[in-house]
Amino acid sequence: MILYSTRNKSHRVTLKDAVIRGLAPDNGLYMPTEIKPLPEKFFKSLPEKSFSEISFQVASHLIGDSLPVTELKRIIDHTIQFDAPLVEVESSVYALELFHGPTLAFKDFGARFMSQLLGYFAREEKKEIVILAATSGDTGSAVANGFLGVKGTRVVVLYPKGKVSVIQEKQFTTLGQNITAIEVDGTFDDCQTLVKKAFQDEELRAEFFLTSANSINIARLIPQSFYYFYAFSRLMHLKKPVVFSVPSGNFGNLTGGLLAKRMGLDIAHFVVSTNKNDVVPEYLQTKKFNPRPSVQTISNAMDVGNPSNFERILEIFDNDFEALSNAVSGFCISDDETRNVMKQVERETNYILDPHGAVAYAGLKKYLKGKDQVGVFLETAHPAKFLEVVEETLGRKLTLPDKLADFLRREKKSLRSSADFAAIKKLLVNTLSVAD
Ligand SMILES: *Cc1c(COP(=O)(O)O)cnc(C)c1O
Protein backbone atom coordinates (compact mmCIF):
# COMPACT_ATOMS: atom_id res chain seq x y z
CA MET A 1 0.00 0.00 0.00
CA ILE A 2 1.29 3.43 -0.95
CA LEU A 3 -0.04 6.60 0.65
CA TYR A 4 0.19 10.27 -0.28
CA SER A 5 -0.18 13.48 1.68
CA THR A 6 -3.43 15.42 1.21
CA ARG A 7 -1.28 18.55 0.81
CA ASN A 8 1.13 17.12 -1.73
CA LYS A 9 0.13 14.32 -4.07
CA SER A 10 3.70 13.56 -5.03
CA HIS A 11 4.83 12.97 -1.43
CA ARG A 12 4.46 9.19 -1.19
CA VAL A 13 5.23 6.78 1.66
CA THR A 14 4.76 3.17 2.69
CA LEU A 15 2.17 2.12 5.25
CA LYS A 16 4.95 1.68 7.81
CA ASP A 17 6.10 5.29 7.39
CA ALA A 18 2.55 6.64 7.45
CA VAL A 19 1.75 4.77 10.67
CA ILE A 20 4.99 5.71 12.39
CA ARG A 21 4.81 9.37 11.37
CA GLY A 22 1.08 9.94 11.80
CA LEU A 23 1.12 13.33 10.11
CA ALA A 24 2.95 14.06 6.83
CA PRO A 25 5.91 16.49 7.09
CA ASP A 26 3.83 19.14 5.28
CA ASN A 27 1.08 18.66 7.93
CA GLY A 28 -1.13 16.89 5.41
CA LEU A 29 -2.92 13.62 6.18
CA TYR A 30 -2.01 10.32 4.62
CA MET A 31 -4.45 8.75 2.17
CA PRO A 32 -4.18 5.53 0.16
CA THR A 33 -3.21 6.21 -3.48
CA GLU A 34 -5.62 3.48 -4.55
CA ILE A 35 -8.91 2.34 -3.03
CA LYS A 36 -10.34 -0.37 -5.26
CA PRO A 37 -13.75 -2.03 -4.90
CA LEU A 38 -13.82 -5.54 -3.44
CA PRO A 39 -14.97 -8.31 -5.82
CA GLU A 40 -18.65 -9.12 -6.38
CA LYS A 41 -18.35 -12.52 -4.75
CA PHE A 42 -17.12 -10.98 -1.50
CA PHE A 43 -20.34 -8.98 -1.22
CA LYS A 44 -22.49 -12.02 -2.08
CA SER A 45 -20.91 -14.03 0.72
CA LEU A 46 -21.09 -11.23 3.34
CA PRO A 47 -24.17 -12.49 5.25
CA GLU A 48 -22.50 -15.84 6.03
CA LYS A 49 -19.24 -14.36 7.28
CA SER A 50 -18.26 -13.53 10.85
CA PHE A 51 -17.17 -10.05 11.94
CA SER A 52 -13.52 -11.06 12.07
CA GLU A 53 -13.63 -12.82 8.67
CA ILE A 54 -15.15 -9.72 7.09
CA SER A 55 -12.57 -7.51 8.80
CA PHE A 56 -9.70 -9.69 7.64
CA GLN A 57 -10.85 -9.66 4.02
CA VAL A 58 -11.36 -5.90 3.99
CA ALA A 59 -7.96 -5.33 5.60
CA SER A 60 -6.11 -7.67 3.27
CA HIS A 61 -7.79 -6.02 0.29
CA LEU A 62 -6.64 -2.58 1.46
CA ILE A 63 -3.24 -3.19 3.09
CA GLY A 64 -2.48 -6.86 2.41
CA ASP A 65 0.70 -6.11 0.47
CA SER A 66 2.25 -4.25 3.42
CA LEU A 67 2.70 -7.16 5.84
CA PRO A 68 2.66 -10.97 5.91
CA VAL A 69 -0.78 -12.66 5.91
CA THR A 70 -0.10 -14.37 9.24
CA GLU A 71 0.68 -11.01 10.87
CA LEU A 72 -2.43 -9.38 9.46
CA LYS A 73 -4.51 -12.31 10.66
CA ARG A 74 -3.02 -12.01 14.15
CA ILE A 75 -3.65 -8.24 14.22
CA ILE A 76 -7.29 -8.66 13.14
CA ASP A 77 -7.87 -11.40 15.70
CA HIS A 78 -6.49 -9.11 18.38
CA THR A 79 -8.55 -6.10 17.22
CA ILE A 80 -11.89 -7.86 16.73
CA GLN A 81 -12.17 -9.56 20.12
CA PHE A 82 -15.55 -8.13 20.92
CA ASP A 83 -18.76 -7.88 18.96
CA ALA A 84 -20.43 -4.85 17.40
CA PRO A 85 -24.08 -5.91 17.66
CA LEU A 86 -26.95 -4.30 15.79
CA VAL A 87 -29.90 -3.65 18.07
CA GLU A 88 -33.27 -2.79 16.54
CA VAL A 89 -34.39 0.16 18.64
CA GLU A 90 -37.58 0.70 16.70
CA SER A 91 -38.93 -0.48 13.35
CA SER A 92 -36.19 0.01 10.70
CA VAL A 93 -33.93 1.94 13.09
CA TYR A 94 -30.87 0.12 14.44
CA ALA A 95 -28.17 1.02 16.95
CA LEU A 96 -24.75 -0.27 15.90
CA GLU A 97 -23.20 -0.72 19.33
CA LEU A 98 -19.50 0.01 19.08
CA PHE A 99 -18.87 0.12 22.83
CA HIS A 100 -18.19 -3.49 23.76
CA GLY A 101 -14.40 -3.09 23.92
CA PRO A 102 -12.19 -2.64 26.99
CA THR A 103 -12.82 1.11 27.43
CA LEU A 104 -16.44 1.03 26.25
CA ALA A 105 -16.08 3.44 23.34
CA PHE A 106 -15.63 2.93 19.59
CA LYS A 107 -12.09 4.32 19.80
CA ASP A 108 -11.04 0.86 21.05
CA PHE A 109 -11.22 -0.44 17.46
CA GLY A 110 -8.79 2.17 16.13
CA ALA A 111 -6.47 2.06 19.13
CA ARG A 112 -6.18 -1.74 19.22
CA PHE A 113 -5.52 -2.01 15.49
CA MET A 114 -3.00 0.81 15.51
CA SER A 115 -1.12 -0.54 18.52
CA GLN A 116 -0.70 -3.94 16.89
CA LEU A 117 0.33 -2.51 13.54
CA LEU A 118 2.80 -0.10 15.14
CA GLY A 119 4.09 -2.91 17.37
CA TYR A 120 4.73 -5.00 14.27
CA PHE A 121 6.55 -2.20 12.44
CA ALA A 122 8.46 -1.32 15.65
CA ARG A 123 10.13 -4.73 15.62
CA GLU A 124 12.32 -3.53 12.77
CA GLU A 125 13.38 -0.46 14.77
CA LYS A 126 16.29 -0.37 17.18
CA LYS A 127 14.70 2.10 19.55
CA GLU A 128 11.54 1.74 21.55
CA ILE A 129 8.71 3.83 20.06
CA VAL A 130 7.30 6.37 22.49
CA ILE A 131 3.69 7.34 21.92
CA LEU A 132 2.87 10.73 23.42
CA ALA A 133 -0.80 11.54 23.83
CA ALA A 134 -2.60 14.52 25.28
CA THR A 135 -6.11 13.61 26.33
CA SER A 136 -9.30 15.10 27.61
CA GLY A 137 -10.46 11.57 28.45
CA ASP A 138 -11.49 9.08 25.78
CA THR A 139 -8.40 9.03 23.57
CA GLY A 140 -6.07 8.46 26.53
CA SER A 141 -8.04 5.49 27.78
CA ALA A 142 -8.39 3.83 24.38
CA VAL A 143 -4.73 4.40 23.45
CA ALA A 144 -3.36 3.29 26.84
CA ASN A 145 -5.45 0.12 26.83
CA GLY A 146 -4.68 -0.56 23.17
CA PHE A 147 -0.91 -0.34 23.67
CA LEU A 148 -0.80 -2.06 27.05
CA GLY A 149 1.88 -4.75 26.91
CA VAL A 150 2.74 -4.16 23.22
CA LYS A 151 6.49 -4.89 22.91
CA GLY A 152 8.74 -2.12 21.63
CA THR A 153 6.26 0.61 22.54
CA ARG A 154 5.76 2.91 25.49
CA VAL A 155 2.87 5.29 26.07
CA VAL A 156 2.93 8.57 27.95
CA VAL A 157 -0.47 10.18 28.51
CA LEU A 158 -0.67 13.84 29.52
CA TYR A 159 -3.97 14.91 31.03
CA PRO A 160 -5.30 18.00 32.81
CA LYS A 161 -5.59 17.58 36.57
CA GLY A 162 -9.18 17.57 37.80
CA LYS A 163 -10.64 17.96 34.31
CA VAL A 164 -11.30 14.37 33.28
CA SER A 165 -13.96 12.21 34.90
CA VAL A 166 -12.92 9.73 37.61
CA ILE A 167 -13.87 6.80 35.37
CA GLN A 168 -11.80 8.12 32.49
CA GLU A 169 -8.80 8.86 34.72
CA LYS A 170 -8.81 5.36 36.18
CA GLN A 171 -8.77 3.90 32.69
CA PHE A 172 -5.28 5.19 31.97
CA THR A 173 -3.67 5.74 35.39
CA THR A 174 -4.09 2.21 36.78
CA LEU A 175 -2.51 0.10 34.06
CA GLY A 176 1.24 0.15 34.83
CA GLN A 177 3.57 -1.85 32.52
CA ASN A 178 4.48 0.31 29.50
CA ILE A 179 1.89 3.01 30.29
CA THR A 180 2.78 6.22 32.17
CA ALA A 181 0.29 8.94 33.01
CA ILE A 182 1.29 12.52 33.77
CA GLU A 183 -1.21 14.70 35.58
CA VAL A 184 -0.61 18.26 34.43
CA ASP A 185 -1.53 21.28 36.45
CA GLY A 186 -3.29 23.01 33.55
CA THR A 187 -5.93 22.63 30.86
CA PHE A 188 -6.32 20.18 27.99
CA ASP A 189 -4.97 22.84 25.64
CA ASP A 190 -1.84 23.12 27.83
CA CYS A 191 -1.37 19.35 27.52
CA GLN A 192 -1.72 19.51 23.78
CA THR A 193 0.78 22.38 23.56
CA LEU A 194 3.26 20.45 25.72
CA VAL A 195 2.99 17.41 23.45
CA LYS A 196 3.54 19.57 20.37
CA LYS A 197 6.60 21.17 22.00
CA ALA A 198 7.97 17.74 22.85
CA PHE A 199 7.69 16.68 19.19
CA GLN A 200 9.59 19.82 18.16
CA ASP A 201 12.30 19.50 20.81
CA GLU A 202 15.58 18.51 19.15
CA GLU A 203 17.09 16.95 22.26
CA LEU A 204 14.07 14.76 22.95
CA ARG A 205 13.90 13.76 19.32
CA ALA A 206 17.55 12.81 19.24
CA GLU A 207 17.15 10.67 22.35
CA PHE A 208 13.76 9.03 21.79
CA PHE A 209 11.62 7.82 18.90
CA LEU A 210 8.49 9.91 19.50
CA THR A 211 5.18 9.48 17.72
CA SER A 212 1.54 10.35 18.24
CA ALA A 213 -1.57 8.19 18.38
CA ASN A 214 -4.24 10.74 17.75
CA SER A 215 -7.07 10.24 15.32
CA ILE A 216 -5.25 11.56 12.27
CA ASN A 217 -3.22 8.34 12.08
CA ILE A 218 -4.36 6.24 9.11
CA ALA A 219 -4.04 3.10 11.25
CA ARG A 220 -6.88 4.31 13.41
CA LEU A 221 -9.15 4.86 10.40
CA ILE A 222 -8.74 1.54 8.60
CA PRO A 223 -10.48 -0.63 11.25
CA GLN A 224 -13.28 1.91 11.44
CA SER A 225 -14.41 0.73 8.01
CA PHE A 226 -14.83 -2.91 9.15
CA TYR A 227 -18.00 -2.47 11.18
CA TYR A 228 -19.85 -0.73 8.33
CA PHE A 229 -19.40 -3.91 6.26
CA TYR A 230 -20.43 -6.06 9.19
CA ALA A 231 -23.58 -4.05 10.00
CA PHE A 232 -24.53 -3.91 6.33
CA SER A 233 -24.09 -7.69 5.98
CA ARG A 234 -26.68 -8.23 8.72
CA LEU A 235 -29.25 -6.01 6.95
CA MET A 236 -28.89 -7.24 3.36
CA HIS A 237 -31.84 -9.62 3.66
CA LEU A 238 -34.16 -6.62 4.12
CA LYS A 239 -33.38 -5.52 0.54
CA LYS A 240 -33.83 -1.85 1.33
CA PRO A 241 -31.47 1.12 1.05
CA VAL A 242 -29.30 1.41 4.19
CA VAL A 243 -28.40 4.81 5.67
CA PHE A 244 -25.72 5.32 8.35
CA SER A 245 -25.81 8.20 10.83
CA VAL A 246 -22.44 9.03 12.41
CA PRO A 247 -22.05 11.17 15.54
CA SER A 248 -19.06 13.26 14.52
CA GLY A 249 -16.28 15.35 16.04
CA ASN A 250 -13.04 14.90 14.14
CA PHE A 251 -14.88 12.89 11.45
CA GLY A 252 -12.60 9.86 11.62
CA ASN A 253 -15.54 7.53 12.11
CA LEU A 254 -17.31 8.97 9.06
CA THR A 255 -14.09 8.65 7.03
CA GLY A 256 -14.08 4.92 7.88
CA GLY A 257 -17.58 4.66 6.39
CA LEU A 258 -16.61 6.58 3.28
CA LEU A 259 -13.64 4.24 2.78
CA ALA A 260 -16.06 1.30 3.02
CA LYS A 261 -18.22 2.88 0.34
CA ARG A 262 -15.19 3.45 -1.90
CA MET A 263 -14.40 -0.24 -1.44
CA GLY A 264 -17.78 -0.98 -3.01
CA LEU A 265 -20.13 -1.25 -0.04
CA ASP A 266 -23.58 -0.16 -1.26
CA ILE A 267 -24.38 2.39 1.48
CA ALA A 268 -27.31 4.52 0.25
CA HIS A 269 -26.49 7.66 2.24
CA PHE A 270 -24.51 9.08 5.16
CA VAL A 271 -25.86 11.40 7.80
CA VAL A 272 -23.35 13.39 9.84
CA SER A 273 -24.81 14.39 13.16
CA THR A 274 -23.01 16.95 15.27
CA ASN A 275 -23.72 18.90 18.42
CA LYS A 276 -23.47 22.71 18.35
CA ASN A 277 -19.98 22.32 16.88
CA ASP A 278 -21.50 22.19 13.42
CA VAL A 279 -18.75 23.32 11.07
CA VAL A 280 -19.34 20.42 8.66
CA PRO A 281 -23.18 20.49 8.53
CA GLU A 282 -22.81 24.21 7.88
CA TYR A 283 -20.33 23.52 5.08
CA LEU A 284 -22.73 21.03 3.48
CA GLN A 285 -25.38 23.75 3.37
CA THR A 286 -23.32 26.80 2.48
CA LYS A 287 -20.19 25.37 0.78
CA LYS A 288 -18.18 27.48 3.23
CA PHE A 289 -15.77 25.83 5.65
CA ASN A 290 -15.42 28.04 8.67
CA PRO A 291 -13.46 26.38 11.51
CA ARG A 292 -13.78 28.08 14.89
CA PRO A 293 -13.05 27.44 18.59
CA SER A 294 -15.18 24.62 19.98
CA VAL A 295 -18.05 25.15 22.42
CA GLN A 296 -18.77 22.82 25.32
CA THR A 297 -21.72 20.42 25.08
CA ILE A 298 -23.04 17.30 26.82
CA SER A 299 -21.65 15.14 23.99
CA ASN A 300 -18.17 16.39 24.79
CA ALA A 301 -16.17 13.84 22.79
CA MET A 302 -17.51 15.69 19.74
CA ASP A 303 -16.60 19.21 20.89
CA VAL A 304 -14.31 19.88 17.95
CA GLY A 305 -14.21 23.22 16.14
CA ASN A 306 -11.72 22.33 13.41
CA PRO A 307 -12.28 18.71 12.41
CA SER A 308 -8.98 17.19 11.37
CA ASN A 309 -10.33 14.62 8.91
CA PHE A 310 -12.16 17.20 6.80
CA GLU A 311 -9.24 17.20 4.35
CA ARG A 312 -9.58 13.47 3.91
CA ILE A 313 -13.30 13.76 3.19
CA LEU A 314 -12.71 16.32 0.45
CA GLU A 315 -10.04 14.03 -0.98
CA ILE A 316 -12.38 11.02 -1.07
CA PHE A 317 -14.81 13.08 -3.17
CA ASP A 318 -12.02 14.56 -5.33
CA ASN A 319 -12.98 18.00 -4.00
CA ASP A 320 -16.32 17.72 -5.80
CA PHE A 321 -18.84 19.53 -3.60
CA GLU A 322 -21.83 18.24 -5.58
CA ALA A 323 -20.78 14.63 -5.12
CA LEU A 324 -20.09 15.15 -1.42
CA SER A 325 -23.35 16.91 -0.67
CA ASN A 326 -25.31 14.27 -2.59
CA ALA A 327 -23.79 11.47 -0.54
CA VAL A 328 -23.76 13.13 2.88
CA SER A 329 -26.35 15.18 4.79
CA GLY A 330 -25.56 17.06 7.98
CA PHE A 331 -27.63 17.87 11.04
CA CYS A 332 -26.78 19.94 14.11
CA ILE A 333 -28.46 18.77 17.32
CA SER A 334 -28.65 21.02 20.40
CA ASP A 335 -28.13 19.78 23.96
CA ASP A 336 -31.86 20.24 24.65
CA GLU A 337 -32.80 18.12 21.65
CA THR A 338 -30.24 15.51 22.69
CA ARG A 339 -31.72 15.28 26.18
CA ASN A 340 -35.27 15.10 24.82
CA VAL A 341 -34.36 12.30 22.46
CA MET A 342 -32.65 10.35 25.28
CA LYS A 343 -35.80 10.64 27.41
CA GLN A 344 -38.20 9.86 24.59
CA VAL A 345 -36.32 6.79 23.35
CA GLU A 346 -36.03 5.39 26.85
CA ARG A 347 -39.72 6.00 27.50
CA GLU A 348 -40.91 4.46 24.25
CA THR A 349 -38.43 1.63 23.73
CA ASN A 350 -36.45 1.16 26.99
CA TYR A 351 -33.24 1.71 25.04
CA ILE A 352 -30.70 3.91 26.82
CA LEU A 353 -28.74 6.20 24.52
CA ASP A 354 -25.51 7.88 25.51
CA PRO A 355 -25.41 11.59 24.53
CA HIS A 356 -23.31 10.89 21.39
CA GLY A 357 -25.53 8.08 20.15
CA ALA A 358 -28.52 10.32 20.89
CA VAL A 359 -27.15 12.99 18.56
CA ALA A 360 -26.74 10.35 15.84
CA TYR A 361 -30.25 9.01 16.43
CA ALA A 362 -31.77 12.49 16.23
CA GLY A 363 -29.96 13.28 12.94
CA LEU A 364 -31.01 9.93 11.50
CA LYS A 365 -34.69 10.46 12.33
CA LYS A 366 -34.65 13.88 10.68
CA TYR A 367 -33.18 12.42 7.53
CA LEU A 368 -35.41 9.34 7.38
CA LYS A 369 -38.66 11.28 7.69
CA GLY A 370 -41.01 10.05 4.95
CA LYS A 371 -38.47 7.60 3.48
CA ASP A 372 -38.82 3.81 3.28
CA GLN A 373 -35.21 3.07 4.20
CA VAL A 374 -33.31 1.27 6.91
CA GLY A 375 -31.36 3.51 9.29
CA VAL A 376 -28.34 2.62 11.40
CA PHE A 377 -26.95 5.04 13.97
CA LEU A 378 -23.53 4.47 15.47
CA GLU A 379 -23.71 4.17 19.26
CA THR A 380 -20.13 5.19 20.04
CA ALA A 381 -20.00 4.89 23.84
CA HIS A 382 -21.68 2.97 26.62
CA PRO A 383 -24.13 5.27 28.45
CA ALA A 384 -22.36 4.60 31.76
CA LYS A 385 -19.26 6.36 30.39
CA PHE A 386 -21.28 9.57 30.60
CA LEU A 387 -22.87 8.66 33.87
CA GLU A 388 -23.69 12.11 35.20
CA VAL A 389 -25.42 13.42 32.08
CA VAL A 390 -27.35 10.19 31.49
CA GLU A 391 -28.50 9.78 35.10
CA GLU A 392 -29.48 13.40 35.38
CA THR A 393 -31.36 13.35 32.05
CA LEU A 394 -33.22 10.10 32.67
CA GLY A 395 -33.74 10.76 36.37
CA ARG A 396 -32.49 7.38 37.46
CA LYS A 397 -29.37 5.43 38.39
CA LEU A 398 -27.53 3.25 35.88
CA THR A 399 -25.83 -0.03 36.70
CA LEU A 400 -22.12 0.21 36.06
CA PRO A 401 -20.83 -2.47 33.65
CA ASP A 402 -18.23 -4.81 35.23
CA LYS A 403 -15.44 -3.43 33.07
CA LEU A 404 -15.93 0.08 34.47
CA ALA A 405 -16.45 -1.10 38.03
CA ASP A 406 -13.14 -3.02 37.75
CA PHE A 407 -11.26 0.10 36.74
CA LEU A 408 -12.77 2.06 39.62
CA ARG A 409 -11.44 -0.47 42.12
CA ARG A 410 -7.85 -0.15 40.92
CA GLU A 411 -5.25 2.20 42.35
CA LYS A 412 -4.40 5.39 40.50
CA LYS A 413 -0.70 5.94 39.76
CA SER A 414 0.35 9.09 38.01
CA LEU A 415 3.25 11.51 37.92
CA ARG A 416 2.56 15.17 38.60
CA SER A 417 3.89 18.15 36.76
CA SER A 418 3.32 21.83 36.26
CA ALA A 419 2.38 22.90 32.73
CA ASP A 420 5.92 24.17 32.25
CA PHE A 421 7.73 22.56 29.32
CA ALA A 422 11.12 22.35 31.08
CA ALA A 423 9.50 20.41 33.92
CA ILE A 424 7.73 18.02 31.55
CA LYS A 425 10.88 17.48 29.55
CA LYS A 426 12.85 16.56 32.67
CA LEU A 427 10.12 14.17 33.73
CA LEU A 428 10.03 12.55 30.28
CA VAL A 429 13.81 12.10 30.20
CA ASN A 430 13.82 10.56 33.68
CA THR A 431 10.89 8.24 33.05
CA LEU A 432 11.88 7.08 29.60
CA SER A 433 15.55 6.55 30.46
CA VAL A 434 14.72 4.31 33.42
CA ALA A 435 12.73 1.95 31.22
CA ASP A 436 14.99 -0.96 30.32
C1 LIG B 1 -14.35 10.43 19.59
C2 LIG B 1 -15.82 10.21 19.76
C3 LIG B 1 -16.76 10.61 18.78
C4 LIG B 1 -16.37 11.37 17.54
O1 LIG B 1 -15.71 10.57 16.60
P1 LIG B 1 -14.89 11.23 15.41
O2 LIG B 1 -14.26 10.08 14.69
O3 LIG B 1 -13.88 12.14 16.04
O4 LIG B 1 -15.85 11.98 14.56
C5 LIG B 1 -18.09 10.30 18.99
N1 LIG B 1 -18.50 9.67 20.10
C6 LIG B 1 -17.64 9.27 21.07
C7 LIG B 1 -18.16 8.60 22.28
C8 LIG B 1 -16.26 9.52 20.93
O5 LIG B 1 -15.41 9.14 21.91
Model description:
The protein has helices at residues 15-21, 40-45, 51-63, 69-79, 107-122, 138-147, 166-173, 188-200, 202-207, 218-221, 226-233, 252-262, 279-286, 310-316, 321-327, 335-349, 355-368, 387-394, 402-409, 421-434, and strands at residues 2-5, 8-14, 30-32, 86-90, 93-97, 129-134, 153-160, 179-185, 209-212, 242-247, 269-274, 328-332, 374-379, 415-418. The chain is globular, with a radius of gyration of 21 Å. The chain is built from 20 helices and 14 strands. It has a six-stranded mixed sheet, with helices on both faces. Strands 9-6-7-8-14 form a five-stranded parallel sheet, with helices on both faces. It starts with a strand and ends with a helix. It has a domain at 82-104 and 220-394: Rossmann fold. 48% of the residues are buried. Helix 4 runs antiparallel to helix 5 (107-122), helix 5 crosses helix 6 (138-147) and helix 16 (335-349) packs across helix 17. By secondary structure, it is α/β, with parallel strands linked by helices. It binds pyridoxal-5'-phosphate. Pyridoxal-5'-phosphate (PLP) binds at residues 105, 107, 138, 215, 247-253, 301-302, 356, 380-381.
